[in-house]
Amino acid sequence: MMTIVTPPHYFGETSNRTFQVARQEARKRGSKAVEAEHLLLGLASSPTTVCGRVLIEAGLDRERIDSLLRQERRDSVAYAGVELRGGMPSVPTENSTVLELGTSANEAIRRGAAVGHAENRVRVGTDLLLGILGAELGTVPRILALAGIDRTILAERVTKARRS
Amino acid sequence: MDAVQIPPIGGSADGLAAVVGLRKLADQLEDAEVERAMRDGWSWSQVAEALGVTRQAVHKKHGQRLIGAGLELRRRG
User: Fold this and answer.
1) What H or E segment, with its residue span, contains residue A144?
2) In sequence order, what are the residues at sequence separation of 6 or more whose Cβ sits closer than 8 angstroms to the Cβ of residue B19?
3) pLDDT tens-digit readout, A35-67
4) ipTM of the complex as predicted
């Protein structure tokens, strides 16, 4: 009997594009690792997928996520009395640097894989999105809160959209 | 036992997010300012001295990136 092994980062046919966009977004922002917020940007960049559709319906297109990330950064450093007048200094991470997956991305992948596993099926993109939305603290929950989006309700919508 | 659910915004969450934001800010500022100094003709030793680290440390951290950025770097110093 042949055993099918799903690659650890496989979340359906569009996952290559998701991770590619996530890496580009991380690099563009000078990040040394791909984090959950970059994966969210990756999922939002494909409006024809279930994930893209749900995110866009929730008002989370790529531009809005980008703007929320900037706001979150400004607000966070302001707590320590630092005012980002001209935004963050931006030096893109060079192409020669291999971007690792950061902790928040790895946790999102782990949680997402568990969703597919629990339902005994091949993983799909919405599992990754549910994995991202499963974080209670950190950058993604903070930008959702800033946008006034209830994380749990959004996750329910994702599950419903996958099943319909 | 599950920990009590904590809102992602407000209180300690804001303080810890400030730590994350400031670390990233410091990293990106260092990248930008080291590159600027090198483009202005500073040597590795001068950059290292200004940052309070060794020449080897600054070269190891930024050398590859600046070569990748097409910067003509001084062989010595």
Assistant:
1) helix A139-146
2) none
3) 999 999 999 999 999 999 999 999 999 999 999
4) 0.87
Instruction: Write out chain B's pLDDT in tens, 77 residues.
Output: 557 889 999 999 999 999 999 999 999 899 999 999 999 999 999 999 999 999 999 999 999 888 877 776 655 45
Cβ-proximal residues to A27 (8 Å cutoff; 6+ apart), any chain: A92, A93, A95, A99
Contact (Cβ atoms closer than 8 angstroms) between residue B14 and residue A79: yes
DSSP assignment of chain B equals -PPPP--SSSTHHHHHHHHHHHHHHHHHHHHHHHHHHHHTT--HHHHHHHHTS-HHHHHHHHHHHHHHTT----S--
Indicate the residue of A80, A84, A142 with minimum beta-carbon distance to B9: A142
AA identity, residue A38: H
Give the pLDDT confidence score for residue B4 in this predicted structure: 82
pLDDT in tens, A96-127: 677 899 999 999 999 999 998 999 888 999 99
- Name which of A72, A79, A94 is nearest B15 (Cβ-Cβ): A79
Interface contact B41, partner A, CB < 8 A: no
Q: Which amino acid is at A82?
A: V
* pTM for the full predicted model: 0.89
Tokens of B6: 């904590």
The rounded distance, in Å, linking the Cα atoms of A13 and A24 is 19
Cα–Cα distances in angstroms (integers) from residue A23 to residues A49, A160, B15, in the given order: 19, 28, 28
Q: What distance in Å separates the CA atoms of residue A57 and residue A158, rounded to the nearest whole number?
A: 11
Mutate to test the interface with B, among A76, A140, A151 (most CBs of B within 10 A): A76
Burial of residue A104 (number of CB atoms within 10 Å: 0-12, 13-18, 19+): buried
